[in-house]
Design a protein that fits this description.
With 238 residues, this protein is an alpha/beta fold. It has two domains: 3-134, Response regulator (Rossmann fold, 3-Layer(aba) Sandwich); 142-237, Arc Repressor Mutant, subunit A, CATH 1.10.10. Helices cover 42% and strands 20% of the residues. The chain has helices at residues 11-23, 34-43, 60-68, 82-90, 103-122, 134-137, 169-180, 188-196, 206-218, and strands at 3-7, 27-31, 48-51, 73-77, 95-98, 143-146, 149-152, 157-160, 163-164, 186-187, 227-230, 234-237. A five-stranded parallel sheet has the order 2-1-3-4-5, with helices on both faces. A four-stranded antiparallel sheet has the order 6-7-8-9, covered by helices on one side. It has a three-stranded antiparallel sheet with strand order 10-12-11. A hairpin with a 4-residue loop joins strand 7 (149-152) and strand 8. Helix 5 (103-122) runs parallel beside helix 8 (188-196) and helix 7 packs across helix 8 (188-196). The longest helix is centred in the middle third of the chain and has 20 residues, at 103-122. The chain is elongated and about 60 Å long. The two termini are 30 Å apart.
């Protein structure tokens, strides 16, 4: 199971993020100051650190460089100025999310990081948390259900009204994201970054084409209408 350290001095926000991520199958530890985070990181390995910048004791800025050498860091900060973002990313942070943020977007960003870690491991890289066994990761729920759909992450199979639906890797990941948070609207950027694991730099028709292909494959089962277009925003399940 992926292990995440949440470093946030606001107890309410810290707990909110923890409960949300644990509901999505992650194991979370909490720290409320930079000093506490440094201590926990010296005692145990984590796969990802969610790090606030404005912390009591050791600041988040001080932690980024040392932590990011061995563990991916996503910064969660109320600092909106460009210089803070540039400085933090240059110091080694993998991502920077401004507060307030949507929990669904945070989940997408986290999944992108873990997909990158998986690819590094498959390619022989050691990455953070490389000691995590496949058996450990099986503790996470790998099955999604939505109305007449079922999706199995382990077998990479999707069924609609009981019938198997052949999907490409990207199509599978798009449905995995949508089914993971039914009712949530996902922007094209969020969908692209999750399914491709890359930064979405420009508007194009990639997502529209893939959604269209998915709907075509689902038409025979009569479930193609489950995917709803939210014009000017993105897509959601309905």
């Amino acid at each position: 199971m992926w292990k995440i350290l949440i470093v946030e001095d606001d107890a309410e926000n810290n707990q909110m993020v923890k409960e949300y991520l644990e509901n999505h199958g992650y194991l979370c530890a909490q720290a409320y100051s930079g000093s506490e985070a440094k201590l926990l990181l010296s005692m145990e390995e984590y796969d990802l650190v969610l790090l606030d910048l404005m912390l009591p004791g050791i600041s988040g800025e001080e932690l980024v460089a040392s932590v990011s050498e061995k563990t991916p860091v996503i910064v969660l900060s109320a600092k909106l100025d460009l210089s803070s973002k540039v400085k933090t990313l240059s110091a080694g942070a993998e991502d920077y999310i401004c507060k307030p943020f949507d929990l669904a977007e945070l989940l997408v960003r986290i999944r992108v990081q873990f997909r990158r870690l998986e690819r590094r491991r498959e390619g022989g890289g050691c990455g953070a948390g490389a000691g995590t066994s496949f058996a450990d990761r099986q503790e996470t729920t790998h099955m999604y259900s939505y109305r007449d759909w079922s999706l199995n992450q382990d077998t990479q199979e999707m069924r609609a009204a009981g019938e198997a639906v052949p999907l490409t890797r990207h199509e599978f990941l798009i449905l995995e994201l949508l089914m993971g948070s039914p009712g949530r609207v996902f922007t094209k950027q969020m969908i692209y970054e999750y399914a491709w694991g890359e930064e979405y730099l420009a508007e194009d028709k990639t997502i529209n084409v893939h959604i269209s292909n998915i709907r075509s494959k689902l038409k025979e089962s009569g479930t193609d209408t489950y995917i709803r277009t939210v014009w000017g925003v993105g897509f959601k399940l309905s």
